Amino acid sequence: MKLITAVIKPFKLDEVREALTALGVMGLTVTEVKGYGRQKGHTEIYRGAEYAISFVPKLKLEVAVKTELVDAVIEAIVSKAKTGQIGDGKIFVYPLDHVVRIRTGETDTEAL
Amino acid sequence: MKLITAVIKPFKLDEVREALTALGVMGLTVTEVKGYGRQKGHTEIYRGAEYAISFVPKLKLEVAVKTELVDAVIEAIVSKAKTGQIGDGKIFVYPLDHVVRIRTGETDTEAL
Amino acid sequence: MKLITAVIKPFKLDEVREALTALGVMGLTVTEVKGYGRQKGHTEIYRGAEYAISFVPKLKLEVAVKTELVDAVIEAIVSKAKTGQIGDGKIFVYPLDHVVRIRTGETDTEAL
Amino acid sequence: MDASNSYGHSQGEQRMSLINRLTGAFGVGALSALGLAGAALAQDAESTIVAGDTAWMLTSTVLVTLMAVPAIGLFYGGLVRSKNMLSVLTQTFGIFALGCLVWLLWGYSLAFTSNASEATNAFIGGFDQFFLKMSTPDAASPVLSNIPDYVFICFQMTFAALTASLIVGGFAERIKYSGLLAFTVLWITLVYVPIAHIVWGGGFLFADGALDFAGGTVVHINAGIAALVGAIIVGKRVGYGKDAMPPHSLTMTMIGASLLWVGWFGFNAGSAGAANGTAGLAMVTTFAATAAAALAWHFAEWLIKGHPSLLGLVSGAIAGLVAVTPAAGFVGPMGAIILGLIAGVLCFFACTGLKNALKYDDSLDVFGVHGVGGIIGALGTAIFAAASLGGVKGDDYDMMAQLMIQLKSVGFTLVYGGVVSAVLFIIVKVLFGVRVKEDAEREGLDITTHGERAYNM
Amino acid sequence: MDASNSYGHSQGEQRMSLINRLTGAFGVGALSALGLAGAALAQDAESTIVAGDTAWMLTSTVLVTLMAVPAIGLFYGGLVRSKNMLSVLTQTFGIFALGCLVWLLWGYSLAFTSNASEATNAFIGGFDQFFLKMSTPDAASPVLSNIPDYVFICFQMTFAALTASLIVGGFAERIKYSGLLAFTVLWITLVYVPIAHIVWGGGFLFADGALDFAGGTVVHINAGIAALVGAIIVGKRVGYGKDAMPPHSLTMTMIGASLLWVGWFGFNAGSAGAANGTAGLAMVTTFAATAAAALAWHFAEWLIKGHPSLLGLVSGAIAGLVAVTPAAGFVGPMGAIILGLIAGVLCFFACTGLKNALKYDDSLDVFGVHGVGGIIGALGTAIFAAASLGGVKGDDYDMMAQLMIQLKSVGFTLVYGGVVSAVLFIIVKVLFGVRVKEDAEREGLDITTHGERAYNM
Amino acid sequence: MDASNSYGHSQGEQRMSLINRLTGAFGVGALSALGLAGAALAQDAESTIVAGDTAWMLTSTVLVTLMAVPAIGLFYGGLVRSKNMLSVLTQTFGIFALGCLVWLLWGYSLAFTSNASEATNAFIGGFDQFFLKMSTPDAASPVLSNIPDYVFICFQMTFAALTASLIVGGFAERIKYSGLLAFTVLWITLVYVPIAHIVWGGGFLFADGALDFAGGTVVHINAGIAALVGAIIVGKRVGYGKDAMPPHSLTMTMIGASLLWVGWFGFNAGSAGAANGTAGLAMVTTFAATAAAALAWHFAEWLIKGHPSLLGLVSGAIAGLVAVTPAAGFVGPMGAIILGLIAGVLCFFACTGLKNALKYDDSLDVFGVHGVGGIIGALGTAIFAAASLGGVKGDDYDMMAQLMIQLKSVGFTLVYGGVVSAVLFIIVKVLFGVRVKEDAEREGLDITTHGERAYNM
Ligand SMILES: Nc1ncnc2c1ncn2[C@@H]1O[C@H](COP(=O)(O)OP(=O)(O)O)[C@@H](O)[C@H]1O
Ligand SMILES: Nc1ncnc2c1ncn2[C@@H]1O[C@H](COP(=O)(O)OP(=O)(O)O)[C@@H](O)[C@H]1O
Ligand SMILES: Nc1ncnc2c1ncn2[C@@H]1O[C@H](COP(=O)(O)OP(=O)(O)O)[C@@H](O)[C@H]1O
């Protein structure tokens, strides 16, 4: 099993989620994050004070999947989250040892 | 060492935290997240517009522990976070290479 | 490649980010979290009701880096995020299998 | 007492004394002077309407409306968890709208007109003004001849509708909305209206000479006891005493409290019924008591709990406003300061000690602030109204006698209001239910009852 | 009709009938009585200014200002996504400021003075009061002789500036700011001012006897049709119908709606032009219609959508306020309740069914509430003004004739306002642009246009 | 000057001229006319109270109260970081309450009664009205005979208490609460009260003929200089110039600014002391200057910084309100527009350029807006009051002479207010401390001082 994490532009969430559901992914977890990278932020001015805001709002998706699904999931995310402009985000894949479903106590792939 | 992550129902936080403390877990980190899964969301209507809200508010706990504690921690979380209804959440276990305590520079199990 | 995660005091963000940029780190992702640990919270009183707030606001940084950068990054974070007082936070290092840049499809170290 | 049916021409004496009450007991002289002034301004030979007084009463009515929408909703709403914010706002706004209709359709008539039978008139008014069928735009109010009838009706309407809104604080975060609306209609009709008639509209406490300038008994004790009874019957919130239930936005609570203070000048100085010296007195005492009570609670908390909180400061302000409500046109500014200091400290203890000791879950301390504050005010009025203590009641004033009358008013309101409210809650519980399901309560009333969320940031 | 140039001494008859209109048709008797009252209070032998009436008109002006800042901004702003909150607040506040200047510099003169030529005077006023150059502090208003000239000018100014603000709800979250400001100046000058002149200032509908107590046509239908036209010309929001666009803070919307209700008493009861029985009538009908409409929408939604929402409750209240605006001083309280019930239900359907059926993106339902509500009110006024239905229009009142006049007013406002607004939008589109770039729209107008964020929590 | 002790019967002449000042210099004729009108309405043969004027002054007092609670707290609070929100709200609300008590106990007496010694009376009033011991509900104000004594006392009280609240913006986010409260009591007593006496209550600038309609010097320059001195003595915020300190909720700031505008009509038009043409003039000039200044700052920012911000728009509005305060009843509407344009642009530069250049941390720009705006207004009044420029000062008006008097007023206020405020801050620093610990400042004053959090979403 792997955990796939993707940092994406917020307005792409629904499309990505639909594509993943189509692949048979049953669940995912989303966090509001702020990203720093090549994509520039903006400047805010409040009376005399100017602030360069270098962090950009992003969403982080976490999806635990069976290893055989990894490539399909990556492909789905890339195809849906891509706008072609700087700041589209990144996908990270991590090893995952165990999964437990709290409600039933089922483990690993059964718990996904 | 392992990192245990648990997605739970928000009102279960205090119970889970107490159970973990009882096991000797000294720290943990909590993030507000939105979960998508078997648990249905709800519909909101604002004048003419209806929105199906498919994401449900959850809390994500992150606890880094010595490997020998993993099973006890999982058990504690399961027993406290369980309501028996869909949406109780999941526990994920990841490998963890290193830990450093910023204040002292201590590392690994000493840093937990 | 490794994923380095650091839980730090919120007002240290800018210093840490600058130090990382100086090391050549091109991007990072930040999440607002609440931490529980040795650092005490505080008590809030609303009319008759007293609440012990045991969670303290923290920021969690996630930085994916080439393995050879790990030690330098840890050192930079420790040196900038340290105040010497309880609650300075922790650094966690995880294995990381793959990285993909959504915009270009580049992978792994090219994608960082 | 004259029990003639012919509305508008009867009850001369009784109305007169009501006006005395409303204008701060400056007596018949004041009235006839007003009449005279009216005459000078008359649109026709018979009109007694004074433009200046009408201007102030229109303004006062608007100010009391501000207390109902949005002030009380914000004051209460800020104190609940964000998942229940909209429920509180909907309840207070909805009740105000409903209360207006009840008042216009039958409430005003039952409260402020005279009943044919002298015996029943001690308790309730007549039917002649159902649907306001006898009012015209150019008629002066039979109760306050210096202002138009519709203005007096509106002014009193805002009191009735606001009072019903106050109650929701007792059982916020768990009440069933349909049951609440049903309760509101019944409560205004069967509790508020009779007590308003009894104290202000010519009923038996009115005849006794009970002093209630702007509604210490009618509004505050009345709402406070209904809320307490409701809190007990509806039961505690899930997780009460265990889970943290911190206010979701003290900013909103502060806005609400501030607008309540602002609007309360319509309540108190408006209860003078004219733009005159009594209105000025009610204004200065309202400032004095509120400022004193705010600081009293604030400093008491600082001393005892270690922190001078904003919530304490604004809660104290409301306690002071409540306490000065029955007293506003009767006491002097220094008496009002002392009254405020007492109310601030005692209401602080009522909301911290008393509630925890008795273990009821009056979510937003309606009883602790409005009930207790109203009692302090009703009794304090008897004391500080004495000229020797700076009040307006001169040489032949018998403080002890008045205190007894005030005690009787307080007692009657607590008993009548408490018992009838309890009966109504139980009836509504059977017919509609008064409490949402536990799951719904946990998820929050906003989504489960109203289908919305307060914030989507 | 006298077309003399000498401002302030001409147009006796016409002004007289305007006052009749403004004071609810109590006729010349009322006016001369007011004059008489004024005389008793006169600072010098000729002044007709009444302090009590002036107090109420000053207050009313302040109340309408409250509707503009902050109420309409909050009502609208709460309904947009948080990334566009400041844009709405800036637009409503900025338009109000701009509207004030336009009014003082030339708007008032063109709306409320007389044009030398009788033919053009049917459509537009004169230039004599450009820059208010003929006003003095001690002068009574030539239009309302019981209050100072400056007070009448300010009171009417708040109407003009507020009306322009209302329009922004139609194309919120995408409009280009520079274009909007240019449109505002043009629209007030070429749409609001002529229609105000035509209906209130002596123009042809005024002469016809159109009934519009406080601005059903001039304000609400006018704003509603401009918003609809604007929504269509500016086009739908990116993602409309696909992305979720929930209100970011219904708390703000509730505060806004409440303050609108509170301020609306200045609008409606202030339109009596005096602190008298007509003001009282306008107040009671405003309460009645608003309460009824709020509950009507609320219950309709409960029945049809399954949830009684706060947004429905407050939207209904606004619908009721809009509908009673033209009617306030003409109908009775029970007529107002029925009018409110109708407006609540029909506007609910306009905002849910109609809009979705016709597929325009009137972001905040300006047409559905102000346009539709205004039409209901304008027509309903003709009906419920009849004395037989509780209104003030006595025996010789011809309801059908009046209904025809009202229909003509409605039709004229829709056509004139619609066409000229469309032309102005197109001109502005060419000169300044009316829409931000797609990227900017996605990121939000707050950062991209105004360089700020509403919340940094 | 008569220095009789018998309050209420002395100082005839001086009071007369105060009223001239307050009512916009319409002279003795206006006063006696008011007297006459009063007589017609008299409750007894001697009363001079006018119901219409009283209605407006009651309303004005309520409006100024709205500025204090909640408006200034929201305007300021929105600009700080959310961890300090409650501290600002507590400070402004608490200071207002404290200021009310100080005023009722001794402030009013020292400001508005006469001192036995003519020499000291040039600086400070007398003790006779300590605890308001000579006031009664039916007495007319010795200062403004057309309204009740208590109403005048309350109206002026709101000015004093609000002014003290304004100061906190200078050292927000770091001030120690206990020190601030001590400073408040001292400052009102030793700075506000003397200056109010000197300018309005019969002191030496009053005798000189200084023009300050509603408080340009007494309120705004006074608060501005105290805030500047405080900002310097308390020192910069931790991280100032390094960390981002963006406003946590411009929505709150907009609500605050809007309610300030709304309430300011009580301030300015209320300072006419009557519901008359001067009140109308003050209202129209207040609209004109505010609208002009709002847009001037907005457009200046658009031009220079590239974005027309909401914060700029509302800051400009406040700058305009400040600048028109001393001028409101003296200048014409077109003069007010020009005054507003100047104030908008200059205050913009003061808050951006000047502050950064001089490197003081006046957190919320109290000096930049109230100090600078007040100076512009005080001097501009001398200019635009001239009849030739649309003002009310006729043929024999000597603009240069008046400008010198205004300069003297400004200079005196800056020096006296600056020096005494500095001394008071230093005394308080020694006795209580004026600054929280660095850790507490970093964590936020809400939790560390007040034990609460503003938001729990
Ligand atoms: N090394 C990294 N570690 C963690 N997150 C990163 C890293 N690099 C980029 N990110 C995340 O990816 C987002 C997009 O990166 P950016 O460099 O702006 O554009 P692009 O995705 O087009 O390369 C960033 O906002 C940040 O949240
Ligand atoms: N494959 C997954 N990857 C990441 N998070 C998941 C995954 N599946 C479920 N979750 C998280 O677990 C939560 C609960 O899952 P859900 O299917 O609703 O119920 P249950 O836990 O009872 O199976 C979800 O809201 C989501 O946050
Ligand atoms: N075992 C753990 N797993 C995950 N997060 C932890 C763990 N221990 C500590 N933390 C995080 O680190 C933060 C700081 O820890 P704390 O014990 O307060 O102080 P210190 O870092 O000085 O040891 C905590 O607030 C929490 O967010």
Keywords for this entry:
A: 112 residues; two-stranded antiparallel sheet; 7 strands; 41% strand; elongated; D: 457 residues; Ammonium transporter fold; disordered N terminus; binds adenosine-5'-diphosphate
Characterise this structure:
Chain A has 112 residues and is an alpha+beta fold. Chain A is built from 2 helices and 7 strands, in the order βαββββαββ. In chain A, strands 2-5-1-6 form a 4-stranded antiparallel β-sheet, covered by helices on one side. In chain A, a hairpin with a 2-residue loop joins β3 and β4. In chain A, α1 runs antiparallel to α2 (70-81). The termini of chain A are close together. The mean pLDDT of chain A is 95. With 457 residues, chain D is mainly α. Chain D has one domain: Orthogonal Bundle (Ammonium transporter fold), CATH 1.10.3430. Helix content of chain D is 66%, strand content 0%. Chain D has 17 helices and no strands. In chain D, α6 packs parallel to α9 (216-234), α7 runs antiparallel to α15 (399-431) and α10 (250-268) packs antiparallel against α11 (277-305). The relative contact order of chain D is 0.14. The chains are: A alpha+beta (112), D mainly alpha (457). Chains in contact: A-B, A-C, A-E, A-F, B-C, B-D, B-E, C-D, C-F, D-E, D-F, E-F. At the D-E interface, α3, α4 and α6 of D face α2, α3, α10, α11 and α12 of E. β2 (28-36) of chain A pairs antiparallel with β2 (28-36) of chain B. The complex binds adenosine-5'-diphosphate (3 copies).
Structure summarized in a few sentences:
Chain A has 112 residues and is an alpha+beta fold. Chain A has two helices and seven strands, in the order E-H-E-E-E-E-H-E-E.
CATH homologous superfamily classification of chain D: Ammonium transporter AmtB like domains
Compute the number of helices of chain D: 17
CATH architecture of chain D: Orthogonal Bundle
Q: Main beta sheet of chain A: strand number and arrangement?
A: 4 strands, antiparallel
The share of residues in extended strands of chain A comes to 35-45%
Rg measurement of chain D, Å: 21 Å
Shape label of chain D: globular
The tally of helices of chain A reads 2
Report the oligomer. heterohexamer
Radius of gyration of chain A: 17 Å
CATH topology (fold) name of chain D: Ammonium transporter fold
Annotation, overall tally of beta strands of chain A: 7
